[in-house]
Amino acid sequence: MKHLLFTGAGLLLATFSNAQQFTIKGDVSKAGEPIEWVYLTYTLNGERKMDSVLVKEGQYNFSGQLPEGATMSSLRAKYPAGSESSKRRLMQRDFATVFLYPGDIAITSVDSFSNVTVKGSKAHDEYVKLNEQTKSFGDRRKELYAAYTEANKAGKKEEAAKLDAQMDALYEEMNEKVYGSYVKANPQSPVAFFAFQQFAGYDIKPEKVEPVFNQLPKAIRESKSGKEWQGRIEIAKKTGVGSFAMDFTQNDTLGNPVKLSSFKGKYLLVDFWASWCGPCRVENPNVVVAYNKYKEKGFHVLGISLDQPNAKEKWIKAIHDDKLAWTHVSDLQYWKNAVAVQYGIQAIPQNLLIDPQGKIIAKNLRGEDLQKKLAELFN
User: Fold this and answer.
1) Is the pLDDT of residue 45 over 80?
2) Are the beta carbons of 165 and 367 closer than 8 angstroms?
3) In the 8-state DSSP scheme, what is residue 78?
4) How many C-beta neighbours within 10 Å does residue 77 have?
5) Is residue 18 part of a domain?
6) What are phi and psi of 140, to 5 degrees?
7) Smallest Cα–Cα separation from 364: which of 274, 310, 283, 281?
8) Which residues of 282-317 are buried (b: 16+ CB within 10 A; e: fewer)?
9) Mind listing the pLDDT tens digit for each residue in 302-355?
10) What is the mean pLDDT of residues 13-30?
């Protein structure tokens, strides 16, 4: 289970054309609780855009431009101050996901704000069909996540790590069978680019992803978002197994510069993590075991933290709490960590195993897979 850079509604672009107008006419009169404001969040020219409207007599309206054709959006309800609904924390029922598309869109909340019917958006119609195919995977993931949470609470780290790996495997299976199959069969669909992005995932495998990207319409590939994805694919080619790791320098916890190439001659695990990343912290004991077992045989770990600005104390505390007695670096720039950007890291935990000559020989080894690979190398 990875912590992803793109989470929540995702705000992922789907298909592209010249700027076109969209309008939304919303009805929350049957939502089951009074709603005062509705907030709309989506992507405009690659930037996150937010808009808000006051609900009048159960109705609300939005309008705007879609320069890139169709985009996923998130609607959020705000309740009158002092009402019981306003006192609770935001919940899933306070949000609705709608794929915007040029033209007039009618959104009706049926019995809660999140349970909506959408008319007038061809993109949303396709999104609903696609989403239906993910439900069985979602149900299985909920079961695994519940077991993972219980194992974590009980301190059963090995069991939690295995369940975590099962969730990642399920994620990959869903991407391949649902999103991959969809975009290959429907490259002209208004949600084809959205499906492609899910299929490509956080750990881009160029040999699998690039041929599918090339099936997308030229307008998508040459759009701003399409070019950004082309760039990610190119980075993935440079960081694939068999490539020589790109050199970099970043400061350690004391402010001293550490260069990747200074570890030549050792097997090195470059580990992208953060103190705030739950799955990273679950995996840390496994890396500690590996480090202690093989450090005298020429194995080392370089931790690269994606901790946030002004979070140095949390970073250092996590290092001590988890007993991570290896080299640590960070620029404390969160997802904009310079090395993470250089290596195209979109989710954590992730890692690279580099041989003594500086060549990447494996990626994303976790749990037993890491132990087996190191045993193969050192035994």
Assistant:
1) no
2) yes
3) E
4) 25
5) yes
6) -65, -35
7) 283
8) bbbbbbbebbeebeeeebbbbbbbbbbeebeebbbe
9) 999 999 999 999 999 999 999 999 999 999 999 999 999 999 998 999 999 999
10) 77
